[in-house]
């Protein structure tokens, strides 16, 4: 009964999980809830009800606490990881002003560019002009700018903006704290320094103020303690420490044991990624890949991503599984695709159902090479191959830019369960 446990909450795109581990990494107890899918009011939009992540997290935490029984006293700390680039504005009473703008959401605000060129003055205008091509790319993608232009009432009332982990931290501990390794997307976050920008112009260009952002801390830092109110919702002990983790992909990289640029993690998840670890900061100004803060101190994770990676496999199943359940259909497809030769009998998939802004800013998803003898198994294998080769392209770009060479790959995520994908 003296063995200390850690509770980890993983908020994903398709589910929320709570898992208790011991010091050796053995799983002691777990609970999982399938999440309601995002809704889309217009093509390219993807929103989730404001309270859904909190409600789902409370449910799985309660389930795992009940499974532990008296063993809950062995849980000495908890932590949260989540998918990244989700934004929620809160009002002066810390209540949501709208639903979540999620990482899948691709809405843009091109009209912000002429506004910035007209309104920025002095040093702000000079900074914008020097890096105009970069700011003209990121400003329209800022979720803050979209709210500013299209929901001015929400924008005026927004006291603070939170990420998924920032929101859950506040609900659990009553403080606006977050991990610095969760700040990705078009945020005024300087990855090289691993802190918020000190340049006022960046905030004006992205449409947010510094006082509207939470305080951030390195992974491993204590963010707060479970409050009495949160304890009533989750059954967690009052005072349990909440420790900063990182974004989901950074945690996968750490958990895979990728500690050097000679190693890389391939993540076959809803977003498919390939990433490595470096100790000398390198970035790509055209955003062909991104460089994020690592879980490891004074290190970074260059990452190339396909926004709708193994989401494509879910989409494929929804189109072709008919009356079969998804697990049964996937098992059948893997068996059939194993007999399809490499190259999928000439069928080619361009797997960018969502634009890759740095590499293919005008690209659209595509299937090409059809002939009369192609089957659904050919198409399934072509999807798997396209994701793998797109990630290989990303790896080559990162290796060239970072002047590194990856010698070993570690594969994680749901797609790693497929022998054909591997």
Question: Looking across the biggest beta sheet, what order are the strands in?
Answer: 3-2-1-5-14-13
Global Rg: 22 Å
Q: Which segments are poorly predicted (pLDDT under 50) over 5 or more consecutive residues?
A: none
CATH architecture of the largest domain: 2-Layer Sandwich
Number of strands: 21
Under CATH at level 1, the class of the largest domain stands as Alpha Beta
CA-CA gap between termini: 40 Å
Total domains, how many? 2
**Tertiary shape:** globular
User: How much β-strand is present in the residues?
Assistant: 15-25%
Give a summary of the structure in a few sentences:
This protein has 422 residues and is α+β, with helices and mostly antiparallel strands.
Word description of this protein:
The chain has 422 residues and is of the alpha+beta class. It folds into two domains: 5-246, 2-Layer Sandwich (Nucleotidyltransferase, domain 5), CATH 3.30.420; 254-422, ATPase, nucleotide binding domain (Nucleotidyltransferase, domain 5, 2-Layer Sandwich). It is built from 13 helices and 21 strands. Strands 3-2-1-5-14-13 form a six-stranded mixed beta sheet. Strands 17-18-16-15-21 form a five-stranded mixed beta sheet. Strands 4-7 form a two-stranded antiparallel sheet.
């Amino acid at each position: 009964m003296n063995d200390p446990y850690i509770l980890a909450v993983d908020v994903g795109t398709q589910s929320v999980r709570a898992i208790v581990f011991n010091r050796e990494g053995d799983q002691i107890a777990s609970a999982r809830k399938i999440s309601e899918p995002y809704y889309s009011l217009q093509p390219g939009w993807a929103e989730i009800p404001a309270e859904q992540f909190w409600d789902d997290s409370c449910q799985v935490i309660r389930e795992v606490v009940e499974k532990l029984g008296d063993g809950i006293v062995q849980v000495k700390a908890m932590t949260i990881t989540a998918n990244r680039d989700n934004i929620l504005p809160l009002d002066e009473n810390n209540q949501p002003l709208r639903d979540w703008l999620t990482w899948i959401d691709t809405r843009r605000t091109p009209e912000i560019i002429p506004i910035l060129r007209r309104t920025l003055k002095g040093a702000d205008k000079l900074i914008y002009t020097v890096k105009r091509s970069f700011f003209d790319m990121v400003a329209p993608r800022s979720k803050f700018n979209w709210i500013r232009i299209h929901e001015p009432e929400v924008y005026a009332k927004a006291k603070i903006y939170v990420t998924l982990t920032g929101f859950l931290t506040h609900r659990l501990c009553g403080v606006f704290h977050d991990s610095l390794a969760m700040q990705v997307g078009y945020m005024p976050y300087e990855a090289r320094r691993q802190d918020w920008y000190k340049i006022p112009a960046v905030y004006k260009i992205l449409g947010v103020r510094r006082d509207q952002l939470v305080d951030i801390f390195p992974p491993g830092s204590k963010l707060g303690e479970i409050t009495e109110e949160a304890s009533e919702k989750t059954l967690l002990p009052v005072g349990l420490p909440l420790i900063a983790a990182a974004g989901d992909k950074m945690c996968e990289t750490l958990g895979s044991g990728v500690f050097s640029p000679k190693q890389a993690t391939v993540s076959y998840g809803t977003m498919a990624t390939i990433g490595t670890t470096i100790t000398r900061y390198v970035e790509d100004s055209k955003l062909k890949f991104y460089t994020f803060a690592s879980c490891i101190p004074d290190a970074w994770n260059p990452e190339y991503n396909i926004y709708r990676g193994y989401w494509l496999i879910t989409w494929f199943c929804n189109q072709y599984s008919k009356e079969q359940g998804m697990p049964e259909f996937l098992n059948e497809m893997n068996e059939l695709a194993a007999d399809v030769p490499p190259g999928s009998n000439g069928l080619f998939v361009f797997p960018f159902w969502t634009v890759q802004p740095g590499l293919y800013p005008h690209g659209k998803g595509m299937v090409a090479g059809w002939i009369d003898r192609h089957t659904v198994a050919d198409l399934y294998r072509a999807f798997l191959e396209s994701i793998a080769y797109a990630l290989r392209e990303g790896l080559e770009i990162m290796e060239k830019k970072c002047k590194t060479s990856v010698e070993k790959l570690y594969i994680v995520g749901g797609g790693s369960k497929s022998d054909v994908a591997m």
